[in-house]
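Here's what a typical entry looks like (ESYT2 protein):
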Amino acid sequence: MWPFICQFIEKLFRETIEPAVRGANNHLSTFSFTKIDIGNQPLRINGVKVYTENVDKRQIILDLQISFVGNCEIDLEIKRYFCRAGVKSIQIHGTMRVILEPLIGDMPLIGALSLFFLRKPLLEINWTGLTNLLDVPGLNGLSDTIILDIISNYLVLPNRITVPLVSEVQIAQLRFPIPKGVLRIHFIEAQDLEGKDTYLKGIVKGKSDPYGIIRVGNQIFQSKVIKENLNPKWNEVYEALVYEHPGQELEIELFDEDPDKDDFLGSLMIDLIEVEKERLLDEWFTLDEVSKGKLHLKLEWLTLMPTADNLDKVLTSIRADKDQANDGLSSALLILYLDSARNLPVSSVLMDSLLS
């Protein structure tokens, strides 16, 4: 299948990624791929998990542990600035979710195929001419790390690639599904964190300046920094949309802020199925990957209701908690699907170039 997968990837680059890059920044309006060769080393699937519980009977959910180490040739240029760059090799490792839905009673039995990563995959790209690319106006504040993060997040929920297999399928509903729920994260406090700051060349152990990074899919929140405290109290609240479960997790990492490189203070991963089941979790969690430290979280699972019958009750509840979040707490969710546009005005820049 690999040669045909490569054909699909090339089509994806030219028809989806290239226009998206051009539209992202005025300086990139002449961006194009001049060569796309993914190479002959196929993607490897190291394991497959199939979900049989908590799933719709008209869908099949697969989690694929994928690993791709490929020698590829991808060349790009920005004609406006006579800039050329390329990619010599790509590595990508992570969990890709594949959803086959809806299941239908005629061949090919599957109406469409959706692909995405549940969380940011490990991505490494070996660039050629990256310095030239970063000299382009509007891009000179970027780095290769930031570019990798942008690419990785494009692959992660709620972004997805949806391929219809039959003409009757409602592609918009599959590509932009309604969220399964909303996770309200009360990021409260921590205890007994490691002291990372040292004095007198490491002889004297000090405290830390802890902060947290919270991820749900490609939704990322960062807490404030609490200076010189091993028992910090943040008392912050975040709200994240949850599009997929089972399999999606709340990821939290704590760091000590430093002038050069921030030190790691521990991590935590919580399965959102457990939160949905309990509806409310208020617990102290032991931090992983460190010798000590605990984190106090309060997690609420909020279900989306199709009518406004309970709106007054919800508004009363969030008014009581209004001081918990900088932007206030949400009472409803607006979903806007932009379908198409017609009779748009012709760009004056385009007219000038046509006339000249």
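The first helix runs from residue 2 to 24.

More examples are in the samples folder.
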